[in-house]
Amino acid sequence: NATCDNNPQDYLCDCKDQGYEGPACEYKSCPTGVAWFDEASKRGAGYHRDGTECSNAGVCDRTTGKCVCDSLFEGDACQKMACAKVNGFTCGDDSYNGDMGECLTMERLAAYSKKNGQLLRDTDNVTYSEAWDAQKIQTCHCPVAWSVRNDNFTHPTYRGPYAFTYTDSAGYDCSKANCPKGHDPRIRGGVNTVQRVNCTTTRGTFRLIFRGNATALLTSNTTAAHLVEELEALWTIGEVAVEFRRYGVALGTDAEACAELGTAIHVEFLTEFGEMPPMRAVVVSGFEGTGDALTVETMQAGTKKNLECSARGVCDRDVGVCECQTGHLSSD
Q1: Is residue 52 a part of any domain in this protein?
Q2: What is the pLDDT of residues 289-311, one digit of tens each?
Q3: Hey, CA dihedral for 74, 75, 78, 83, is it positive or negative?
Q4: 3-state DSSP call for residue 67?
Q5: In a domain, 94, yes or no
Q6: Start and end of every EGF-like domain (predicted)?
Q7: Half-sphere exposure of residue 305, counting CA atoms within 13 Å on the CB side?
């Protein structure tokens, strides 16, 4: 396992590169990583040495060459922070599907960064890969609310039998739940958000995207009733009202979403409150004629609040259900 340096002053065995150490190479070495804890390299600055045995977060078992990590760390070299467990399940206990959430590094979590419910990766290049802890610190990424209308979403978070039985998981271990949100009923007035999709073409297909979720393929002759169905099928949207207009005049129920003279598709959000990102309209095919266009703009910014339990109750985070104040009812 080693070679002798044949130096009369010490006659040391050289075996580090072979995975052994000790005066006679009788001990096995353990994997190394970037140190979690280390001395500062100089006054006012710190560094984390690479090549540190068990990353300074465990003890090397010299008989096996494996790290015995402290309880908060994991990996061959104890190089990763362990995610929380509930009843033996990582990131929450779900008796239906096993693990509730997913244990991700900071580098992978960056892809899920959101602002106002909108994934930043949809509009900005959000990364976290250069910092020393990008692949070392891990935490639970909890699943978001699941809708019975979206059969493709893979993490149903059932809290029933209650209204709004599908709610977001929350907490450092995904074992808790958020509660439904709504407008404070004691605040009078307030308006809903209205966004307008301008569609000018006689031939083409497109999709509308809201908070990262896209509708099925829409055509230029889609009706208002069909558009309502497609938008409400998204798990990020509850209920909407849709009206087609041209030159400020409402069109009939058989009107088409797009036209040579242009159609203004007014979408009023009836259940989504607070600050909202605009929908995105994406052309799939067509829209190749002179003057063809597909744009989205906010016509009216909503003023209603988006408050947990509508600010008239307390959230029971064990089940994700609001305990309402006296005189207030319903799921939110």
Answers
A1: yes
A2: 889 999 999 999 999 998 888 89
A3: negative
A4: strand
A5: no
A6: 1-26
A7: 14
- Cβ proximity of 311 and 184 under 8 Å: yes
Element (H, E) at 225: helix 224-232
- Paired strand residues for 194: 268, 300
Q: Which domain holds residue 63?
A: 2-71
- The H or E element spanning position 240 is strand 240-246
Whether the CB-CB separation of 10 and 46 falls below 8 Å is answered with no
**CB of 269 closer than 8 Å to CB of 192:** yes
Which residue type, as a one-letter code, is found at position 106?
M
Sign of CA dihedral 40, 42, 44, 50: negative
Of 231, 295, 224, 296, nearest to 269 (Cα)?
Answer: 231
Average pLDDT, stretch 87-107? Answer: 74
What is the maximum span of the chain, computed from C-alpha positions, in angstroms?
A: 101
Whether the CB-CB separation of 11 and 5 falls below 8 Å is answered with yes
Domains of the chain: total: 2
Give the chain's mean pLDDT: 83
Given a cut of 50, whether residue 279 has pLDDT beyond it is yes
What is the distance in angstroms between the CA of the first residue and the CA of the last residue of the chain? Answer: 69
Instruction: Measure the CA–CA gap between 199 and 72, rounded to whole angstroms.
Output: 54
Tens of pLDDT, residue by residue over 110-147, are: 888 877 777 777 667 778 888 888 999 999 988 765 44
pTM for this entry: 0.69
For residue 183, tell me if it sits in a domain: no
Burial 4-30 (b: 16+ CB within 10 A, else e): eeeeeeeeebebeeeebbeeebebbbb
Residue 147: what are its φ and ψ, rounded to 5°? -110, 140
Q: Rounded to the nearest 5°, which phi and psi values hold at 28? A: -85, 140
Boundary (domain end) residue, out of 49, 71, 93: 71
Structural domain includes residue 206: yes
- Cβ-in-10-Å burial (0-12, 13-18, 19+) of 95 comes to exposed
